[in-house]
Design a protein that fits this description.
With about 550 residues, the chain is of the alpha/beta class. It has 2 domains: about 5-280, 3-Layer(aba) Sandwich (Rossmann fold); about 285-415 and about 470-540, Rossmann fold (3-Layer(aba) Sandwich), CATH 3.40.50.880. Helices cover about 35% and strands about 25% of the residues. It has 17 helices and 25 strands. It has a 9-stranded mixed sheet with strand order 13-12-14-15-25-24-23-20-21, with helices on both faces. A 7-stranded parallel sheet has the order 5-2-6-1-7-10-11, sandwiched between helices. Strands 16-17-22 form a 3-stranded mixed sheet, with helices on one face. β10 (about 205-210), α8 (about 215-225) and β11 form a beta-alpha-beta unit. α1 (about 15-30) runs parallel beside α3 (about 70-80), α4 (about 90-105) packs across α5 and α5 crosses α6 (about 150-165). It is globular, with a radius of gyration of 25 Å. The chain starts with a strand and ends with a helix. About 50% of the residues are buried. Bound molecules: glutamine.
């Protein structure tokens, strides 16, 4: 029997609803339950793929090629359950489906309305594509009280009625702010937020209260009384020093016990949290540290590179070191002499990106890493930058560029117009829509034997997730290889370059895919483990 836990948030945004949901799911998993996590986003974009990273943070790509909310990254990292297209929905997609059905005539005769047509579509989504999960945790994006989230709240209210309270649970995440002049944690915003929920017919069963300090018993009692929740179901969610501490912390406050109690699951085994404790132990007591410069564009909003930051930390966990991240806007390297800021770092990484701004700074960073033999990791755009750098500076192609920035004489990186997905040919043209038309999701890549990546992966064929519109132009392979840039991974049909590396460098690898999306704390991605290891070696040299 699948049970549904709905997680809403109140008072303010950014309380960590995604992490809380992921952490709860991971603890339920350690109790032996099969879990699935879903995110319902209230905005009108069909998916976050067309949104600026400044607006929305990273776009997380699933194996099946969906561009989704970054919380799905937390879900996957915490539970190891691969996210699917069917795990993220937006108001935009719901409406576009409902309207498409209306045009087809599926509702012929009816007036199409938010209730029941939109709410039915939401409920249908919540219950779709499940495979015997014990728990489905559905996070509702946004904050209670937002106009946009109303249809979602209405849908989950209805679902709770249809399925019964023994199969559904409402968890509400709120904030208890500390007011220094009063010397107190304040419960009023939580009371208001719960009132807001009650006004749409939802009585929360459990409150997770974010706070920067312990919540006195008296305040818990007060919240319980005013919000009509059992006292043990008012769970303190205190700030922690690493996100991987969250499952253990919430467990110690009784979260999973209360969830089991709600569902009448009295005889389940206590969770085995040993591996979570081991991870936090490793994070807290590293044997050394390294500094990696991330030379990108969206460095002022770190959510833009969420999975990347996590993957680098996982590489640190694997090597028992702390990884300090130096986020640098590549534009600074367009100023004479500024590149020296990279002298003391132990690794340089150019992440994924779009558009021409800051490109020459990124290319300068690649050149610096190559010449100074500092470990270099280029991801997607970062690989394309490495290719342009080699073409311009080593293959005597000064006009080498990417057609992403306009027509050019030497298109070493060009628009991808067709590629194979399995046995199917996918075609694109420059006139296509921008939403959902990139090469997205998992594709196989054949590694070239005897190369560094073949050694790192320890295998011949790998599968990694992609999100790009341009590709390295295979026609330049010979000239680039003559310049020392080895094409060490290709699409199985040999047409799309997937990985480049240098043999004359301690660690210089560029990949067209996003390995960071598959890295997990318990299963660090081999490329990140290897890159951080190279950075550790570099740290012994400087
Ligand atoms: N802008 C490049 C492309 O579309 C790289 C994309 C990326 O880094 N994800 O190919």
């Amino acid at each position: 029997m699948t049970r549904f836990i709905f997680i809403t948030g109140g008072v303010v945004s950014s309380l960590g609803k995604g992490l809380a949901s992921a952490a709860l799911a991971s603890v339920l998993q350690t109790r032996g339950f099969k879990v699935r996590l879903r995110k319902l986003d209230p905005y009108l974009n069909v998916d976050p793929g067309t949104m600026s990273p400044y607006q929305h943070g990273e776009v997380y790509v699933t194996d099946d090629g969906a561009e989704t909310d970054l919380d799905l990254g937390h879900y996957e990292r915490f539970t190891g359950v691969p996210s699917r297209r069917s795990d993220n929905i937006t108001t935009g997609r719901i409406y576009s489906n409902v309207i498409a059905r209306e045009r087809r005539g599926d509702y012929l005769g009816a007036t199409v309305q938010v209730i029941p047509h939109v709410t039915d579509a939401i409920k249908e989504f919540i219950r779709s594509d499940l495979t015997d999960e014990d728990f489905v945790l559905c996070e509702i994006g946004g904050t209670v009280g937002d106009i946009e989230s109303l249809p979602f709240l209405e849908a989950i209210r209805q679902l709770a009625n249809e399925l019964g309270r023994e199969r559904t649970m409402f968890v509400h995440l709120t904030l208890l702010p500390y007011i220094p002049s009063a010397g107190e944690l304040k419960t009023k915003p939580t009371q208001h937020s719960v009132k807001e929920l009650l006004s749409v017919g939802i009585q929360p069963d459990l409150l997770l209260c974010r706070s920067d300090r312990p919540i006195p018993q008296g305040e818990r009692r007060k919240i319980a009384l005013f919000c009509n929740v059992r006292e043990e179901a008012v769970i303190p969610a205190l700030d922690v020093d690493t996100i991987y501490q969250v499952p253990v912390s919430y467990h110690e406050e009784g979260l999973d016990e209360q969830v089991c109690k709600h569902f009448g699951l009295h005889d389940t085994a206590p969770p085995d949290l040993r591996r979570w404790r081991k991870i936090t132990e490793r994070i807290r007591f590293p044997e050394g540290e390294v500094t990696i410069a991330v030379v990108g564009k969206y460095t002022s909003l770190l959510d833009s590179y969420k999975s990347l930051a996590e993957a680098l930390h996982h590489g640190g966990i694997a090597n028992n070191v702390k990884v300090n991240l130096d986020w640098l806007d590549s534009q600074i390297f367009e100023t004479e002499g500024a590149i020296r800021a990279l002298e003391d770092v132990h690794g340089i990484l150019v992440p994924g990106g779009f558009g021409e701004r800051g490109v020459s700074g990124k290319i300068a960073a690649v050149k610096f890493a190559r010449e100074r033999k500092i470990p270099y990791f280029g991801i997607c755009f970062g690989m394309q930058m490495a290719v342009i750098e080699a073409a311009r500076n080593l293959a005597r192609l000064p006009k080498a560029n990417s057609t992403e920035f306009g027509p050019c004489d030497e298109p070493v990186v060009g628009l991808m117009t067709e590629w194979l997905r399995g046995n199917q040919l996918v075609r694109r043209s420059g006139a296509d829509d921008l939403g959902g038309t990139m090469r997205l999701g998992a594709y196989d890549c054949q590694l070239v034997q005897g190369t560094k990546v073949a050694e790192i992966y320890g295998g011949g064929i790998i599968s990694e997730r992609h999100r790009h519109r341009y590709e390295v132009n295979i026609d330049y392979r010979e000239r680039l290889e003559a310049a020392g840039l080895i094409f060490s991974g290709l699409s199985p049909d040999g047409v799309l370059p997937e990985i480049v590396e240098r043999a004359d460098h301690p660690w210089f690898i560029g990949v067209q895919f996003h390995p960071e999306l598959k890295s997990k704390p318990f299963d660090p991605h081999p490329l990140f483990t290897s890159f951080v290891k190279a950075a550790v070696q570099q740290s012994r040299l400087v």
